[in-house]
Amino acid sequence: MPIVDLVIAVCLISDPTSCREEHLLFESHGSLRACMAEAIPAMAQWAGNNPQWHIERFHCEWANDAEEKT
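Above: the chain sequence. Below: its structure as tokens.
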């Protein structure tokens, strides 16, 4: 199965101008559209483990595409 990179933009709750990207990799169960649906539980788990951060936005991309950009 192909690997999807869930890219979430997060900002500190205590300092909303302090932001960064987090990357969560997981196996795809279809398309990037499917990733968007699968992303919700993954983001909820990440947010629960990182309560000092607020998720601003997110998107999915194929992990191979992300590696090529770096």
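The chain has two helices and three strands.
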